[in-house]
Specification:
The complex is a heterodimer of chains A (155) and B (136). Chain A has 155 residues and is of the alpha+beta class. Helix content of chain A is 15%, strand content 44%. Chain A has a single domain (10-152), classed as Electron Transport, Fmn-binding Protein, Chain A (Pnp Oxidase, Chain A, Roll), CATH 2.30.110.10. In chain A, a hairpin with a 2-residue loop joins strand 3 (36-47) and strand 4. Helices cover 13% and strands 47% of the residues of chain B. Chain B is globular and about 50 Å long. The chains are: A alpha+beta (155), B mainly beta (136).
Chain lengths: 155, 136
């Protein structure tokens, strides 16, 4: 099956995807927990070409992401240009061992929004990165005669 | 909370890995409805594996962040009556292009949480400001 690509969708080059990733602090992580997908909003930071986030031992997130495939997404909207964009990064999550850069990562500007102990740093090894940007349409183009209020008065 | 926003993220299982897509959605009688065209999102959402949908936000007045995750099976809305009902929903995708399929997620579980956003300093380790400590 082919995806019906609209000509107005711009696929973003990888460098721009990374720039967008570096410009945000919160994203959503999709993982599979007990045979079904789940989503967690996470605070993250980009370091040496990978996404790093914190989690606490024993949480659902920690238990489900270590060494498993994950998908990570960020998106945004530019009100000036009325363009929306999103970046999706797929990869495998690995826990950072203390000997493999935990101290270095500890110095990263990675500041979770929620308090509480989150001492485990996870890194997503990137397998696939894609981004797209498109012009946000006016709601009008999705209206149908059925939703037209003017019609209602005749019925 | 789900009714207050129109953009969420849909997580689906694609072959051997999870994938995630931003979607415009609306609520309808305790279910979530979104529109999509042909493609990965449609095929994998309607697969055997249930899906998860997440929405979140921050209230700048209170500094409170919230997120809601709904999980459940996704089905295509096929019956004519249902499609006609659905067309009347205030569902306006941001991206134009053909999106002929209406998909309904019937949640089997909805969980939400909210918390006050902590100050960034909570996460500063002792090393972060060590060089400044003596002089300041």
């Amino acid at each position: 099956m082919t995806i019906d690509e609209s000509p107005d969708i711009e696929n973003l080059p990888k460098t721009e995807c990374w720039e967008l990733l570096q410009g945000q602090v919160i994203g959503r992580l999709a993982v599979v927990v007990e045979d079904h997908p789940d989503i967690f909003p996470i605070n993250y930071v980009v370091h040496n070409g990978s996404v790093i986030f914190r989690t606490a031992l024993g949480t659902k997130l920690h238990g489900s992401v270590n060494n498993t495939p994950v998908a990570f997404e960020i998106d945004g909207y530019n009100p000036t240009t009325e363009q929306a964009w999103s970046v999706v990064l797929r990869g495998r999550a690995q826990e950072l061992e203390p000997t493999t850069g935990l101290a270095e990562a500890g110095a990263l500007p990675l500041q979770p929004w929620q308090g509480g102990e989150k001492n485990h740093l996870m890194r997503i090894d990137t397998l696939n990165l894609s981004g797209r940007r498109f012009q946000v349409t006016k709601p009008d183009i999705w209206t149908t005669p059925l939703t037209d209020a003017r019609r209602a008065s005749f019925e | 909370m789900l009714r207050t926003v129109s953009v969420g993220r849909l997580a689906v299982w694609v072959e051997d890995h999870p994938d995630i897509f931003p979607i415009n959605f609306t609520t309808d009688h305790g279910t979530l409805v979104f529109r999509t065209g042909e493609g990965t999102k449609l095929v994998s959402a309607l697969g055997d594996t249930p899906v998860a949908m997440e929405a979140d936000g921050v209230d700048p007045d209170t500094g409170t962040a919230w997120s809601v995750v709904a999980k459940g099976g996704a089905t295509a809305i096929l019956a004519t009556d249902d499609v006609l009902d659905t067309v009347g929903l205030p569902l306006f995708p941001w991206e134009e292009g053909r999106k002929d399929h209406f998909i309904r997620i019937t949640p089997t579980s909805i969980t939400g949480r909210s918390f006050v956003v902590t100050a960034p300093t909570t996460w500063w380790g002792p090393m972060n400001n060590a060089p400044h400590a003596a002089n300041e």
